Amino acid sequence: MTVRKNQATLTSEEKRALTNALLELKRTGVYDRYVAAHNNFLLSDSDFGDRVGHRSPSFLPWHRRFLLDFEAALQKVDPKVSLPYWGWTVDRTPASSLWAADFLGGTNRARDGQVLDGPFARAGGNWAITAGVDGRDFLRRTLGAGGAQLPTKAEVNAVLAMTVYDTAPWNSASDGFRNHLEGWRGANLHNRVHVWVGGHMASAASPNDPVFWMHHAFIDMLWAEWQRRNPKSGYQPAARTPNVVDLRDTMRPWNDVTPADMLDHRTFYAFDTETPGAKG
User: Domains of the chain by range and CATH?
Assistant: First the structure.
């Protein structure tokens, strides 16, 4: 079974294998199809209309399936590769190993955020941004700019302590675990990380930055931990509700996947630890 590891524990060989697989998906055009798909869904999801991938109860199962599909694409390139997670409650500064030149790179140019080192820097010629939000063709970040702070363990644990998955009106105004984790309420967990990374991660085309997958692997891990703590509090809404995906509705763009199909991650993969709130 696939095991998703903390990125901080990856060996040099594992980092190379992952970055090489990412670069190969980019070379073949597969990578940019995922960027475009995410961009389209985020821009079309609306608090007051149809919403599938964001601002809705299906945020978590939708991204679980999105990551599974992307991980399968990586494994077609290299069967040994899996998606690591970025535990940003611990690895929370631009000096973290995640941002080293032998992995994702982190040094950015102050005037425009251009990433200057690592395998995804423009200088390498292997990571042209084609599914972007403007005309610039290079990856951009602004790590921690403007005094932004990543969420803390205490903030994560407070959200994990919530016992209701989601509530009406089933959008960014909802109370409950899903919306506090997604980041429209309370401590602003998921959204705040996108903003802290900045650049492309702060846009609808956020998968342009490979850290997107590691961030969402950790969000997925937090959902799995919440499920473990709350076995009697399931996905909501269970019954048909306008504009949102209920438990057994099909989630676009798939024609055969429902939230119910995505509830147990153990069907697909394991994590190297099952206590993200406590250990980061």
Answer: 2-279 (1.10.1280.10)
- What CA–CA distances, in Å, run from 263 to 15, 62, 221, 233? 29, 11, 12, 12
| Cα dihedral 119, 124, 126, 130 sign | positive
Q: What is the pLDDT of residue 279?
A: 43
Ramachandran assignment for 236, one of left (phi > 0), alpha (psi -120 to 50 degrees), beta (any other) = beta
Short-list 132, 177, 126, CA closest to 23: 126
* Contact by Cβ (8 Å): 116, 107: yes
Rounded to whole angstroms, how far apart are CA atoms 68 and 124?
A: 28
b/e per residue, 39-77, with b = 16+ CB within 10 A?
bebeeebebeeebbbbbbbbbbbbbbbbbbebbebbeeb
Q: Does the predicted model carry a pTM greater than 0.90?
A: yes
- Cα separation, 275 vs 280, whole angstroms: 8
What are the tokens at 50?
A: 């149809």
pLDDT at position 10: 97
Q: Mean pLDDT in each 10-residue stretch from start to end of the chain (280 residues)?
A: 96 98 98 96 93 97 98 98 98 96 94 96 95 89 93 97 97 97 94 97 96 98 97 94 97 97 97 60
How many Å apart are CA 273 and CA 4, to the nearest integer? 9
